[in-house]
Write a structure and sequence with these properties.
With about 400 residues, this protein is mainly alpha-helical. Helices cover about 75% and strands about 0% of the residues. The longest helix has 29 residues, at about 365-390.
Length: about 400
């Protein structure tokens, strides 16, 4: 019991470290991106004229120069922040990104404590706390930090349903989180859909609990209608919404996407390696531990399917992004960060346990010292890389081309 308490203290300390690092770096952005300008302009348009202001913003989006004002959750949250703080520049939405990033880290900590071996969870949270990609997103007025938080919540709920599907409250909660997340960025449909399909397979097909599946589907339909109605009211009515949707270019293959976010699929994997090399390698070890090796006995049989869900959740989104034109950008995959780093922690823990089992027991202390030294070196390296590339180097985005070019800095 005392050992378990000490492990949770370590995890709590790492979560605090991650929150401090995110807060400490919110003010060191030298140049704001065009996306940050767009969301701020749209929020100001809402403040000035409400739905009519967003409808006018939609006229600009028809030219393909700005995104359509359909992410009303993001826009109206930034508008509220502007009212509270009086800040009207492109950094007005940074408190939202900061809170969402810290929230995602905390949810990942809860998932780790609930479903992973304690030291595996601690390793994963350390990787996540110092993640250069997560730290970079937490200081920008982008939709990707809210996506990160929504994905973490969706994953947490899906894990809980996988572990115990008898509590019906979890099913409408999944629909609520997914529906709200879509109002910040429609890409939330991807993790939402993955969780939904997993639940249908596990709970419906596997356990024959079709009533629970029906509750989930019904809640999802109600949620989708509710957010569509809210979006319509925010842009001036149903006719205005239809006009915006049908009159706005829908292609993701913009000139910027084709130049910076497109290329051979392996560039995405290479970017993960450049940003967080030890975590990237350990995530592969984690996949091996789950699917090619026998997981250690200290992982309960009930939690092994949950960890497989976590691995599938992240891997499927990465594979999907590799097949989509213009999606080779790590910030578009912010929703995979909780699963990616937890899986990396699981892989590191599995490797350490495997090494320990192959050497003499009297060398246990030496193994622990070496493992801790590697973790500390990895954490220092990741944070140093973040400072060099994103703070001093001023990298404006996380596209694969920019990240690969950053190696020359």
């Amino acid at each position: 019991m005392r050992g378990l308490t000490s492990q949770r203290i370590v995890i709590a300390a790492l979560l605090f470290l991650g929150a401090v690092l995110r807060f400490a770096n919110i003010g060191n952005v030298s140049v704001r991106s065009r996306d940050e300008q767009y969301y701020t302009f749209q929020a100001l348009a809402w403040i000035d004229a409400g739905p009519e202001g967003l409808h006018k913003q939609a006229e600009f989006s028809k030219l393909g120069s700005t995104p359509p004002p359909l992410r009303v959750g993001m826009i109206r949250t930034i508008a509220q922040l502007i009212r509270w703080t009086g800040r009207t520049d492109e950094g007005a939405g940074v408190p939202l990104a900061l809170a969402a990033s810290i929230g995602a880290l905390l949810i990942a900590g809860l998932i780790g404590i609930r479903f992973f071996p304690p030291w595996a969870a601690a390793c994963g949270i350390l990787f996540y706390a110092v993640s250069p990609a997560a730290l970079a997103i937490a200081r920008r007025t982008w939709t990707d930090a809210p996506v990160e938080l929504a994905s973490a919540l969706l994953l947490c709920i899906a894990c809980q349903i996988t572990r115990d599907s008898r509590r019906l409250l979890w099913f409408p909660m999944l629909a609520v989180v997914g529906s709200v997340g879509i109002t910040f960025k429609e890409a939330v449909l991807i993790p939402y859909g993955i969780c939904g399909l997993w639940i249908i397979c596990v709970v419906g097909i596997g356990r024959r609990q079709w009533r629970s599946v029906a509750l989930l589907l019904g809640s999802a339909i109600v949620g989708l209608f509710a957010i569509t109605a809210w979006t319509a009211s925010s842009v001036g009515g149903w006719a205005s919404l239809i006009q915006i949707v049908t009159g706005t270019p829908v292609s993701l293959a913009t000139p910027y996407a084709l130049e910076c976010c497109w290329g051979p699929p392996n560039l995405l994997l290479q970017s993960f390696w450049i940003v967080s090399p030890v975590a990237a390698l350990m995530s592969l070890v984690g996949l091996y531990a789950l699917y090619a090796a026998s997981a250690p006995q200290s992982v309960s049989a009930a939690n092994q399917p949950v960890i497989r869900l976590i691995a599938l959740f992240g891997a499927s989104q990465i594979v999907l992004a590799m097949t989509m034109k213009g999606w080779l950008n790590l910030r578009y995959l912010a929703g995979t960060f909780p699963s990616f780093y937890l899986l990396a922690g699981f892989g590191f823990w599995f490797l350490a346990v495997t090494v320990q089992n192959r050497i003499k027991s009297r060398d246990y202390a030496l193994t622990a010292v070496v493992a801790v030294a590697i973790l500390i070196a990895s954490a220092v390296g990741d944070y140093t890389r973040f400072q060099r590339v994103f703070v001093r180097g001023g990298l404006p985005d996380l596209s694969v081309r920019m990240i690969i070019d950053s190696r020359q800095q």
